[in-house]
Write a structure and sequence with these properties.
The chain is an all-alpha fold. The chain has one domain. The protein is about 80% helix and about 0% strand. The chain contains seven helices and no strands. α6 crosses α7. The longest helix has 29 residues. The two termini are about 30 Å apart.
Amino acid sequence: MRATMMDELHKPYVDTARSKGLPTYKVILKYPVRHAVTPLASTIGWQLPNLVSGSAIVAIVLSLPTTGPYLLQALQGQYMYLAGTFLMMLAVLTIIGTLLSDIILALLDPRIRLS
């Protein structure tokens, strides 16, 4: 976000807003922050399943009680209902995360809104 923000601060529309006499905090919050947050908001949706599942390999090696080792045990023991439930839960969380990130993007960037 910092790199995108630094790129946005040197764009002509920021100079135009400053030349209109807007305070610096309004210029920064209204224009470049909205553009700099867009890539961050689009990747948040894909991180929601990772928060729940955790890193499976790290959890297995460190014997952490997360869903990663349980999913591995379910797959090795051929417990198809348990493994299917885990995978369905991760798929639902991916869909919910994508929906939330799309809603956040629609609020931040008016170009994304459906007409």
